[in-house]
Amino acid sequence: MNNANRETLLSIKDLEITFGSGKSKFVAVQDVNFDIFKGEIFSLVGESGSGKTTIGRAVLGINPTSKGEIIFEGKQINGKISSKEKFQIERKIQMIFQDPSASLNERATVDYIISEGLYNYKLFKTEDERLNKVREMLEAVGLLPEQLYRYPHEFSGGQRQRIGIARALIMNPDLVVADEPISALDMSIRAQVLNLLKKFQREQGVTFLFVAHDLSVVRYISDRIAVIRAGKILELAETEELFKNPIHPYTKSLLSAIPIPDPQIARSRKNIIYNPNMHDYSIEKPEFREIRTGHFVYCSDSEAIEYKKNIKD
Amino acid sequence: MQEKTNQSKIYEIDTIVPIANVSEDDFAVVSLNSKENEKIDTPKYSYWGSVAKKFFFSKITIFMLLLMLVIFLMAFIQPLFSGYNLESVGNINDFKARYNWPSAKYWFGTDANGNSLFDAIWAGARTSISIGVIASLITEIIGVIVGAVWGISKKIDRLMLEIYNVIANVPSLLIIIVLSYSFGNGFWNLIFAMTCTSWIGTAYFMRVQVMIMREREYNVASRTLGTPTKRIIFRNILPYLTSVIVTDVSMSLPSFISYEVFLSFLGVGLSQNVPSLGRLISQYSPYMTSYPYLFWLPVLVLALITISLYIIGQRLADASDPRTHL
Questions:
Q1: Which neighbouring-strand residues pair with A13?
Q2: Could you state one GO biological process linked to this protein (chain A) (predicted)?
């Protein structure tokens, strides 16, 4: 795919997010740059505490940003924007939450939960139209219309997560931030939810920012992957490119840690341990550089030359 | 040895159903019905239905509820027929009507003025219950609304905390006494004095509860769906606090009734011609040894009112907590 011809939906430039101020100031995310193209599933992968969820939440405007720009459909959406504009953007960017039992209102029926956004934006003319929309959505996520008046705690974890997906997608969003949507789910129902997300991408052209820590899941679902560590994006490439030619040592160590369900291969495989002190950035400042077309790595000049030499085709 | 026997058993199974006899007709294709998997078989859950079921489950609760109903009905219907008047001294010269011990004619006996204590108690209970119910309703309504806004808004929080610190450091009984002195005696004046500052305690309590709920993830989810704050308060936060609110009501109802009794005992609060349980208790306390029924019967009725209200309130609070519904 040629990225130059694709329409950019979301563009993040030099993003910095800090929590607290003064002595207790903590920089959670720094120098983050990436574009998300229309209709793709873009994944952010990293260990816990790396800032991947923070970026997702900043896109939604839940976390305030301290520096940089988040540009959505050509307009800046972070920092000071009018509440009217914010309200309009909120409809276009939706979120799927990590824990389906914590993110659903236990005292409301599924009917209300799914149509909450419809009420807020008055996306229906008559009561019948709203009910039809909710029913269609329920069927689209594989639930039964007769469950409309049940409460979230009556559902299984997978069903609850599908309610969460229905609630986000009924708004017809352009971008959906999926914050580890499957990590709270049982292994057996993960595929169900992943396939559902893929279905919406295919059929409705929804763009996803998929936040996860599980590389095998990410490989299955995403078009492009960004690897993030300690608030910095270290490598960004198309999925297969990243898995075939990992360039950054951190990515290499991550890929070497994916479990292989074959004891013989697993035993002979060498695990790579990443040491963040191996980079000497005291003289040359690191930057996010394009090593190959569409393959970006966070490195200094001399590292870039070395990386380019070692690329296999 | 063990293994050998196990193996022989396996062979035996084979001999029971010889493979040659198993034909393809014995098997049927089982398909996976994904729609069927989604079905929930449990009966439909309804919040208030479960509350009622849980509430009426206990026999003590039903007994207390009946007791409370009887007291309330007596208090609000009996005075309509008895025509009891606190200041009536019509029977004062009728010596036969004075100081009668409880009997078939005078169920609760009579006092120095020849007035029936039975009539006096229900007329008094009516005032006391009215004060308790009205005062706690006002307190709860103002307290919950102010507390919800207080807990949500950080700007209001700063201002309200200062006001709360000033008011909460003055004993509430002192405020009530001073206010009822300065406004003069009277039913509505007493209610005003009681509710004037009591709502801030409820509001503070609600503020803490709302603050706990505020950052829960489902509220963040609502915000990303563009839900306005007002709807978040009414649809997301307050329904979670039903049991907390009911508990608070169940505590404040008896406490307002006892405030009234205490104030009437001191002689402040209600006007001289209004009967109340507090006034009866203070009026008859000199007879504690000579005619004990005059003192103890109003106390007993007061105790029954507060205990039944308290227990019903507690049971309702327990029942309205969905964690008990399973």
A1: A69
A2: protein transport
User: Around Cβ B121, how many Cβ atoms within 10 Å?
Assistant: 25
Task: Report the alpha-carbon distance of residue B326 to residue B323 in Å, rounded.
Answer: 7
Domain range B50-81+115-324, CATH class: mainly alpha
A88–B contact, CB cutoff 8 A:
no
Q: Do A144 and B38 touch (CB under 8 A)?
A: yes
Please indicate if any CB of chain B lies within 8 Å of the CB of A56: no
The tens digit of pLDDT for each residue in A96-115 reads 998 888 889 888 889 999 99
Q: Which residue segments constitute the domains of chain A, with CATH numbers given?
A: 3-310 (3.40.50.300)
pLDDT in tens, A115-127: 998 998 888 889 8
Q: Mean pLDDT across the stretch A163-192?
A: 87
**Residues in chain A closer than 8 A to B220 (CB atoms):** 62, 97, 103
* C-beta atoms of B218 and A102 within 8 A: yes
Residue A108, pLDDT score: 86
- Predicted confidence at residue B150, as pLDDT, reads 92
Interchain CB distance below 8 Å, B221 and A106:
no
d(CA B54, CA A127) in angstroms, rounded, equals 34
Dihedral angle computed from the Cα positions of residues A40, A46, A51 and A53, in that order, rounded to the nearest 10 degrees = 50
Cβ–Cβ < 8 Å for A178, A209: yes
Q: Residue A238 forms beta bridges with which residues?
A: A224
Determine, for residues B226 and A120 on separate chains, whether the beta-carbon distance falls below 8 Å.
Answer: yes
Please state, for a pLDDT cut of 90, what percent of chain A lies above it: 10
Q: Among B42, B47, B225, select the one facing A107 at the smallest CB separation.
A: B47
Q: Which residues of A touch B34 (CB under 8 A)?
A: 142
Q: Determine contact: A162 vs chain B, CB below 8 A.
A: no
Domain boundaries, chain B: 50-81+115-324
Contact A258, A270 (CB under 8 A): no
Q: Is A106's CB within 8 Å of B225's CB?
A: no
Give the nearest chain A residue to B38 (CA atoms).
A143
Q: Which residues of chain B have pLDDT under 50?
A: 1
Chain B contact present for A94, CB below 8 A: yes
Assign 3-state DSSP to chain B and report helix, strand, coil percentages, each to 5: 75, 0, 25
Rounded distance, CA A272 to CA A290, Å?
24
Any B CB within 8 A of A248 CB? no
From B136's Cα to the closest Cα of chain A, the distance in A is: 26
So what's the pLDDT on residue B1? 47
Question: Edge-to-edge strand order for the sheet containing A175-179?
Answer: A93-96, A175-179, A207-212, A41-46, A224-229, A232-238, A295-299, A287-292
Distance between CA atoms of A134 and A108, rounded to whole angstroms? Answer: 15
A83 CB neighbours in chain B (<8 A) are none
In this structure, how many other beta carbons lie within 10 angstroms of the beta carbon of residue B99?
16
For residue B4, give the amino acid letter.
K
